[in-house]
Amino acid sequence: MKALIDTNILLDMILARQPFFEDAEKIFRLVREERIEGCISVQSLKDIFFLCKKLDKEQDPFDVIQKLSYIFQVIDVSGADSIMALTSDVGDYEDGLLAFSASRNGIKAIITRDKKDFFESDLIVIHPKEIDKYLDSNGSKLERCSSDKNGIRFK
User: Fold this and answer.
1) In the 8-state DSSP scheme, what is residue 115?
2) Would the pTM count as exceeding 0.90?
């Protein structure tokens, strides 16, 4: 099963944000171990590039985007996703873009710290702290997409 990794989890890892870093690191590890088929939105890459340029002068934003692209499958956002996000009950436009592009790409779950933001979507919403419980209750290892076997550590 594919899982979309929300931008907040990616930023927790990249910027080593406390107290969330350990949970984000675990999600990255599970993708590298092929227990989660980790996907990210091209929209998330855009946001991360902008924030890395603005907040973290020590990391090359091009390098960060390249590493993320090796670890995760990058999904697109379409014009139809944009219209759906605008006209749906999802309260936040950016979250709507993620939810509709995930659904269109056959993704059934999202891993996020902001579960309430996806309450109105059809996605299974998983907090990083709940991931072990979810994997255990699933009864089998989650499939994965391509990743860098050497892993990644941003900080």
Assistant:
1) G
2) no
Q: Are 105 and 75 in contact (CB under 8 A)?
A: yes
Nearest residue to 146 via CA among 66, 8, 34: 34
- Classified by CATH at the fold level, domain 2-138 comes out as Rossmann fold (3.40.50)
Distance CA 141, CA 132 (A): 11
Measure the CA–CA gap between 103 and 118, rounded to whole angstroms: 12
pLDDT of residue 49: 93
Q: In the prediction, which pLDDT does 90 show?
A: 72
Tokens 């996806």 correspond to what residue? 118
- pLDDT range class, residue 42, cuts 50, 70, 90: very high
88-93 own/partner pairs: CB under 8 Å, 24+ apart: 88/120, 89/120, 90/117, 90/118, 90/120, 90/121, 91/117, 91/120, 92/117
Structure tokens belonging to residue 69: 């692209």
Domain regions of the chain by residue span: 2-138
Phi/psi of residue 72, nearest 5 degrees: -115, 155
Cβ atoms of residues 57 and 45 within 8 Å:
no
